[in-house]
């Protein structure tokens, strides 16, 4: 049931129509809680969220960064393809506020500087996802990590890999 990002030109009503049906190309994996998601997967597979520390301790910088990027990329991937003026203003405000309150102060300061150089592109899902990928790659470069191919950002954060490895194994009843 692999989805194609190029076919992602739909109205909001169409997107919401089948978002709860795991067999639909509009299925919203991020809208299903973990216990429901487990019921959709074969019982032989065990799901253990990477962000849950076994001891329940506060996040360290690495865990916070990983969880933050996952949230931001997922938000961008589910941002409207054709946002309203209000949605665009809200997203711009969100990133300003995010940078103001992010708990790692030097990380937040870097993000603010990068936003001054490269302001958020909020006119579409594709633009926002690409802009956020650029921001993430600026951090990756600074940390000596590999850069992500931004042409695959929606495949990674919304549709799943084209090889089908992210597809849900949902049986017809």
Automatic annotation (TrEMBL):
Residues 1-20 are annotated as: Disordered. Residues 9-20 have a biased composition (Basic and acidic residues). Residues 57-157 form the ERV/ALR sulfhydryl oxidase domain. It holds the Pfam family Evr1_Alr. It is found in: Mitochondrion intermembrane space. It comes from Hymenolepis diminuta. Its cofactor is FAD. GO terms for molecular function: flavin adenine dinucleotide binding; flavin-dependent sulfhydryl oxidase activity. InterPro entries: ALR/ERV, ERV/ALR_sulphydryl_oxid_sf, ERV/ALR_sulphydryl_oxidase. PANTHER family: ALR/ERV, FAD-LINKED SULFHYDRYL OXIDASE ALR. Keywords: Disulfide bond, FAD, Flavoprotein, Mitochondrion, Oxidoreductase. One of its GO terms (cellular component) is mitochondrial intermembrane space. It catalyses: 2 R'C(R)SH + O2 = R'C(R)S-S(R)CR' + H2O2. Its main location: mitochondrion. Its EC number is 1.8.3.2. The keyword Cell wall biogenesis/degradation does not apply. This is Sulfhydryl oxidase.
């Amino acid at each position: 049931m692999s989805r194609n990002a190029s076919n992602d030109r739909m109205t909001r009503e169409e997107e919401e129509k089948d978002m709860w049906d795991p067999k639909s190309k509009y299925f919203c994996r991020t809208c299903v809680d973990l216990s429901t998601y487990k019921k959709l997967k074969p019982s032989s597979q065990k799901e253990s969220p990477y962000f849950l520390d076994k001891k329940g301790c506060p996040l360290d910088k690495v865990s916070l960064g990983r969880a933050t990027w996952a949230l931001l990329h997922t938000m961008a991937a589910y941002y409207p393809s054709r946002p309203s003026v209000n949605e665009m203003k809200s997203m711009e405000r969100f990133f300003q506020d995010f940078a103001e309150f992010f708990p790692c102060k030097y990380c937040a300061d870097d993000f603010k500087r990068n936003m001054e150089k490269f302001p958020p592109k909020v006119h579409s899902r594709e633009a926002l996802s690409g802009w956020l990928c650029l921001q993430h790659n600026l951090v990756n470069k600074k940390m000596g990590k590999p850069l992500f191919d931004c042409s695959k950002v929606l495949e990674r954060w919304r549709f799943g890999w084209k090889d089908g490895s992210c597809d849900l194994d949902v049986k017809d009843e």
